[in-house]
């Protein structure tokens, strides 16, 4: 299992570096890495993260299509922002989904850290959708996910994944700064 976790970690690092650089090739690495992580998280009884990986495969296919269309139209990946009202709506949705999913995981499964795991999963869902839509706020959500995930994965003894999320935190900060420089005015 350790070698699969290391392989998935390396694929995800490549994915996020390519996202930060606004390269469409990030999606190939994302799909492979998330598929492998689905199994790793299932074995660790992190069921929300397991389901999240399936969602990631699907939304990465969607994102690949969206970015391909955007590049064909604009010649590059164009970065935009959400309105204040939209940001509030996304935050409310994340909080509601976290509470609902965490409650289900707590009551119906033997999940470890069901509410923390649900929070990581629901925030990741929102971040990935916003990434696919080329919204700057995806990076803020990824930074939050990375900070919480570092603690969770360390508590579960998933050390390659903990190290991965430390690296992802640094890359997410870099991605936020880089996307800010390139956003549509």
From TrEMBL:
UniProt-annotated location(s): Cell membrane
Stated name of the protein: Nicotinamide riboside transporter PnuC
Family, similarity comment: Belongs to the nicotinamide ribonucleoside (NR) uptake permease (TC 4.B.1) family.
Membrane topology: Multi-pass membrane protein
Lineage: Bacteria, Pseudomonadati, Pseudomonadota, Alphaproteobacteria, Sphingomonadales
GO molecular function, one term: nicotinamide riboside transmembrane transporter activity
GO CC, alphabetical: plasma membrane
PANTHER family in UniProt: NICOTINAMIDE RIBOSIDE TRANSPORTER PNUC (PTHR36122:SF2)
Species name: Sphingomonas aliaeris
Transmembrane segments: 84-105, 111-132, 139-156, 162-179
Keywords attached to this entry: Cell membrane, Membrane, Transmembrane, Transmembrane helix, Transport
Job description of the protein: Required for nicotinamide riboside transport across the inner membrane.
InterPro entries: NMN_transpt_PnuC (IPR006419)
